[in-house]
Amino acid sequence: MRTTRTFRTALLTAAVAGLAATALPAAPAAAAPVAPKFLSAGQWPASLTPWTAGPVHKGLPEDGSVCTAGTIPAKGTRHRDFRTELDTGARQTITVAPTAAKAKALAAELRTALATCLDRLKEQEPGLEGVSRYHGRVNVEEGAHVYSIDTSYPEVGSTDIGLHSVGRDGRTVTVLEWGQLGDLHGAPLKGFRKTTGTAVAKLH
Question: Which of 11, 62, 130, 168 has the most CB atoms less than 10 A away?
Answer without folding.
Answer: 168
